[in-house]
Automatic annotation (TrEMBL):
Protein's UniProt name: Uncharacterized protein
Annotated transmembrane regions: 6-24, 33-50, 70-88, 100-119, 125-145, 157-175, 211-232
Keyword line: Membrane, Transmembrane, Transmembrane helix
Superkingdom of source: Bacteria
Length: 234
């Protein structure tokens, strides 16, 4: 465990607890914050997450039966969270609380996976900064989209559930395995889930879009990350 990973863990827990107030009380417009979150998140997925999953698949080599097991798990993650989203959406009008708790249950597991990966990977220095910024903004966007439709229940229960699973993931990542098939599977499954969550929830819709912020955030984060990956060989 590094100081950087501890700071990231604390930051992620605070974001889960206070995502709604962070967005509502920021001096920037809600549209700009959500567009910033979406821009950084989509860049993070395509410039960092997908290459990471490719590297992990290459390291598995011929150990398993196929050459695309992790990609299949990524697809499975996308399909699972798409299914949860559709089920929750169809039940929302008649059973809003049931719809909310269906979503929060799956996103609790999602935050557990992300937190586990952060602490198991034990990222350091500049990489930790970029990892923390990307995941933190992603969590702000996700927590906002889950909570803003059912604010009372989210304030009373949901935010504490997400904060708790983030903490549990951090502890598990610290004492659990940091390499191997289990961690690779978590990375792959959560990557698929992240791709769906970013595209479905964080790409700015008409009501929440500030296109210049989205484009600038996405391009600037991508270029910065590519430059640093080339310099530090991440």
């Amino acid at each position: 465990m590094t100081i950087e990973s501890i700071l990231i863990g604390v930051m992620l827990i605070l974001i889960q607890l206070f995502a709604l107030p962070i967005i509502h009380r920021t001096p920037f417009k809600e549209q700009k914050i959500l567009s910033l979150s979406g821009g950084v998140a989509i860049a993070y997925v395509f410039v960092y997450i997908l290459p990471t999953m490719h590297e992990e698949q290459d390291q598995l080599g011929g150990d398993l039966a196929l050459d695309s097991e992790l990609y299949f798990l990524g697809l499975l993650g996308l399909l699972v969270y798409y299914s949860v989203y559709k089920i929750a959406k169809t039940k929302h009008e008649q059973h809003p609380n049931t719809s909310y708790f269906v979503q929060i249950s799956f996103f609790a597991f999602y935050t557990f996976m992300i937190s586990y990966i952060v602490f198991a990977s034990d990222v350091k220095t500049v990489e930790a900064l970029f990892y923390g910024v990307a995941v933190g903004l992603h969590f702000i966007g996700i927590s906002y989209h889950i909570g803003h439709g059912n604010k009372t229940v989210h304030r009373q229960y949901g935010r504490f559930i997400l904060a708790t699973t983030t903490l549990i993931g951090a502890i598990a990542g610290t004492i659990g395995p940091s390499t191997g098939l289990f961690v690779d599977s978590l990375i792959a499954f959560s990557s698929g889930a992240m791709i769906f969550n970013v595209i479905s929830k964080e790409l700015p819709e008409e009501d929440y879009a500030h296109l210049p912020t989205f484009l600038i955030a996405s391009l600037l984060f991508s270029v910065s990350l590519l430059t640093l990956k080339a310099i530090f060989q991440w």
